[in-house]
Amino acid sequence: MSMNAPGLTEDQRNQAFSEYVGDESKVEPKDWMPEAYRKSLVRQISQHAHSEIIGMYPEGNWLTRAPSLRRKVALLAKVQDEAGHGMYLYSAVETLGVSRDDLFDDLLSGKAKYSSIFNYPTLTWADIGAVGWLVDSAAIINQVPLCRCSYGPYARAMVKICKEESFHQRQGFEIMNTMAKGTDAQHRMAQDALNRWWWPSVMMFGPPDNESKHSAQSMAWKIKRHSNDDLRQRYVDVMVPQAEFMGLTIPDPDIKWNEERGHYDYGDIDWTEFKQVMAGHGQCNKQRIETRQAAHENGRWVRDAALAYAEKKAARKAASKVAAE
Amino acid sequence: MAKNDWPLFEVFIRSKQGLDHRHVGSVHAIDAEMALTNARDLYTRRGEGVSIWVVASNDIVASNPEESGTFFDPAEDKAYRHPTFYEVPDDVEFL
Ligand SMILES: [Fe+2]
Ligand SMILES: [Fe+2]
């Protein structure tokens, strides 16, 4: 029985829906869905979209000071991609019946949540390497399983995004590797950036499984595929050898290969810091929102001009139609 | 004016000559002309398209999932429209 079939009770629809997503079938915008599923997706996709938008600021900070034209065009293209990712995701979340303007308002007012990682400052050029390498690598590990998410528009947006992330990660690695193998001073900068970005990156996978309040339901609905801790473990396993290759040291003395588990062990995470940043007390929370607000305000004349132009064109068209009659 | 409420346009892209246009997502724009350039900037940053269609989302007429049972029913019991319905001896070629 389909959850869309006419005349079903709420319970029957819920039951049919669980079976439907359980069978790996995809849900499309006009299908019947439980209100909690819709809300959960709106929350997740809009937070994801906001993260892409705010994610432009730490890197945008270095656009005018990139050390070469090659680095500058690459970084510019990456930051543009992040804007694009935000747009793909706003487009996906709008299919769930929310308006993009309302989502923008939530971000501008500081009400909306976004990834905690973007509330840390980019202090030196090496931070741009660290962000591309550490943060985009974490994003890829988070995002690849979302390409199979049960909600069609979200899954399709993620496919487009994942294709683009690979260049982001590589350009970050290239910067990091160049600096790590450069002069002593450059190597120190790379190590310093890794020291500051490592733990916030590890926290990007969210709270530990026993504290993650949305996880179990998201897994049952096939929105989420792997637990936070499983994804985090995968991240550590991928990143440790890459850091070693560059001759950099991950700032966690407990990192050690565990033969028995077939994974790297790692140290305890300071979740109070994570909670502080999520609660708005990170180093850059205030600055990020203010920058976003200023960008929105400074773009106002462009939006007004576009509207005036469209109205003028429409009026001319109407006038010439009258003249022709 | 705090809000734009610019209309939504669905975007379809032909990735290369010889293929159909395919739905890729949507953009907001003040009019169709702006929707085309927005769609170009958003969906073809790496040469993903040779042609773009945009259409106001409100102008799309769609079938209703609640009625898909009856709506698509006429085709459901017509197995004889498929080649597998027909019996063909194993030793006959090119069928
Ligand atoms: Fe992104
Ligand atoms: Fe990225």
Structure notes:
The complex is a heterodimer of chains A (325) and B (95). Chain A is mainly alpha-helical and 325 residues long. Helices cover 66% and strands 2% of the residues of chain A. Chain A has helices at residues 10-22, 35-54, 56-60, 69-94, 100-108, 125-143, 152-180, 184-203, 215-220, 228-246, 271-281, 285-298, 300-324; strands spanning 256-258, 263-265. A two-stranded antiparallel ribbon of chain A has the order 1-2. Chain A is globular and about 80 Å long. Chain A starts with 9 loop residues before the first helix and ends with a helix. The relative contact order of chain A is 0.10. The model of chain A has no long low-confidence stretch (mean pLDDT 95). With 95 residues, chain B is of the alpha+beta class. Chain B has a domain at 3-62: Ubiquitin-like (UB roll) (Roll), CATH 3.10.20. Helix content of chain B is 21%, strand content 22%. Chain B has three helices and three strands, in the order ββαβαα. Chain B has a three-stranded antiparallel beta sheet with strand order 2-1-3. In chain B, a hairpin with a 6-residue loop joins strand 1 (8-14) and strand 2. The longest helix of chain B has 12 residues, at 32-43. The radius of gyration of chain B is 21 Å and the shape is elongated. The complex binds fe (ii) ion (2 copies). The site of one fe (ii) ion has 5 residues of chain A, from helix 6 and helix 7. One fe (ii) ion binds next to helix 6 and helix 7 of chain A.
